[in-house]
Fold:
Amino acid sequence: MSRILRRIIALALLAVVGAVPLAAIAQDGKIEILWLGQSAMRIKTVAGKIIVIDPWLIKNPKTPPEYKNLDKIGKMDIILVTHAHGDHLGDGPDLAKKYNAPLWGPAGLGQSLQTLGVLPANLAPRMGKGGTIEPFPKVKITAVRAEHSSELLWHNPATDKDETWPGGEPVGFIIELENGFKIYHMGDTAVFADMKYIAERYKPDLIMIPIGGHFVMAPEDAAWATREVLKPKYAIPMHYGTNPFLVGTPEQYIKALGDAPVKVFNMKPGDTIEF
Structure:
């Protein structure tokens, strides 16, 4: 038996009795992030759990064709939705039912999905801003403020008409993984003063930041928030190029950052990065 294998077995046995943290067992594991266009992200945690965020896929013009088949994205353990708009809630309910994965989002969104019969209560749990869940060992997810709106557009099959329902207040998510690495998925947002609190309280390593403009921050505002307030190690620009209003580009964001000490991943939909 190799020394490495003996070490893994020993750590696993110790973990059973709580003597070592889960992160020690998974220390060779990598964090994997797949961007699927707009704000849709798939995160594989250190221990291999799959978190999917804002899964607008089938109608997303930037999602690679292979991921428009919901069978192709693969099994997921939890779905996070930042607000009720169609380009964020997207295919979330269908994925929740397909993979029996709870869909966490603003409390009002979960309640409307339950009331309308879109999802059962166990797949549409509710949480509020400032609330933290621990869906897996050593993984914590906290809902934080976002400056946006969150109407739910629902097509009523009985009347064949669209209806607007409450979608709760929009949120971002702080996702702390098994090894302490923190991701801040900002959802759709403008700059707001409480970003300073979020930066100081949670100290995100990686931000996923909207840059398209019009409905969200423009590249210059996003760069200011990154450089002056959030100060992460890494950034992934998102939420641009999917409709004529979202004209901001990663190149504009990078230029506006100047010499800020942040590594920007200028990803294309379908690209994967590892940490």
About this structure: The chain has a mean pLDDT of 91. The two ends are 29 Å apart (CA to CA). The chain has two domains: 1-28, 31-274.
